[in-house]
Each structure stands twice: as C-alpha cells, then as structure tokens.
Design brief:
Blueprint lengths: L19 E3 L5 E5 L24 E5 L2 H14 L7 E3 L1 H6 L1 E6 L5 E5 L2 H7 L3 H4 L5 H11 L7 E5 L6 E6 L8 E8 L4 H9 L2 E3 L1
Parallel strand pairs: 4-10, 6-7
Antiparallel strand pairs: 1-6, 2-5, 3-8, 5-9, 7-8
Length: about 200
C-alpha cells in the first residue's frame, strides 16, 4: 500500500513559530446576510473557528468572487453537467456584499505566503484538511500565540486568493462597512458564477 503523507499539526507552545504580517485596513469583502456585515462568530463548522477557541472570527476575502466562493464553494464545486448546485432563492436574492475597513493595521499570522508556510512548518493539506479539527488546531495555535496575533491570512481553498480570518480581540474596535451593501443577485460576480458553474436557484 502507498505510504500516507505526514499530516502536519501545530507544535506545543512555545515551539510553534509563525511569520508576522500586517493586514491591510481596506480591500476586504464579505458576503453576508442582511444586517450581518460585521458579525463575528464561533462556528465549529467553519475552518478556523475552534469551538473552544478564545475568540470569535470574522471571515473576509480579497474580492467579491473570493468572498462568494468561501460561502458557496463546496456547493458549486460539487456540481456537474448533469447535477446542478442548488442554492435557495431566498439566499441568493438577499445575500449582500460589503466592503470592510479594519480600524487599524493589525498584526496577523501569515499562513498565506510561501515564507509563512515555511516559518510555521505547515502545508496546504493541513490547513484545508477534511477533518476540521486539524485546521482549527492551527487557528487555536495562532489565537493563543505569545505574539498576540489579531487574525490570520490564509488562501481560499477554491481560488487560492487571499483571505483574512479576523479575531474578535477585546479592545480592538470593530471593522466598519465602507459604502452601501450591494446585493449578490444581479451583480457582475453573480453573473460570472452562473456562467462558470451549473447553478440552480430553487
């Protein structure tokens, strides 16, 4: 039988290292339900939201398509020519994009760049592992690190573009919405998703 590859997990503190980066204050997009543009949460079904982690998390993408793929990606990638990805009409028609501005240039862990991967001793497989306990362990290691990180940069599983998991660290101040939220339905991004994937609005 083929030998299984090693699954990289975070080392115990203080041996685990991370490369620091500064998160841009602007250029982030979130796809959300109405009135929930800035909603931190602790959801064990999310990749970097450990159930017992010290912070709730807000997920942001570098552009509209990345933010949409982070929400719909598993459904869209499961579609085929003969089996459409079903998205409820009530969801497609009401979800909104918002441009998010951070209150300051936060120090975050870099789990996006090659240098960040080398510093942490992690690979793409571990951060996107099917058993969410593995990527959540990496998130908890970042959350509890002595460097006092306020979030982590990571790559979308679907298009490899930059995303930010921002932690709700007390005293940080809340991100704000820049401009007016805009509906997903009817957007250029939505039109391109409908062309790229077999989507059925039910």
């Amino acid at each position: 039988m083929p030998k299984a590859r090693h699954l990289w997990r975070p080392r115990p503190h203080p041996d685990q290292a991370f490369r620091s980066a500064t998160a841009a204050t602007s250029g982030w997009v979130r796809l959300h339900w109405p009135n929930n543009a800035v909603l931190f949460s602790r959801n064990p079904e999310h990749r970097f939201s450990p159930e017992k982690g010290p912070y709730e998390v807000l997920y942001l993408g570098q552009d509209e398509r990345t933010a949409a793929l982070e929400v719909f990606g598993d459904r869209l990638y499961g579609a085929t020519a003969r089996k459409a990805a079903d998205i409820p009409r009530a969801e497609w028609l009401v979800r909104e994009f918002s441009d998010i501005v951070l209150p300051s240039r936060f120090n975050v862990a870099d789990l996006f760049s090659p240098a960040g991967f080398e510093a942490a001793g992690v690979d793409v497989t571990a951060l996107a592992y099917d058993d969410l306990a593995v990527p959540q362990a990496w998130a908890e290691s970042v959350m509890t690190h002595s460097a006092g990180f306020h979030g982590m940069l990571y790559a979308s599983r679907f298009n490899k573009k930059k995303c930010l998991a921002l932690f709700a660290v007390p005293g940080d101040g809340l991100p704000v919405v820049s401009g007016i939220p805009r509906l997903l339905a009817g957007s250029v991004t939505a039109g391109r998703l409908l062309v790229s994937f077999n989507i059925r609005i039910t």
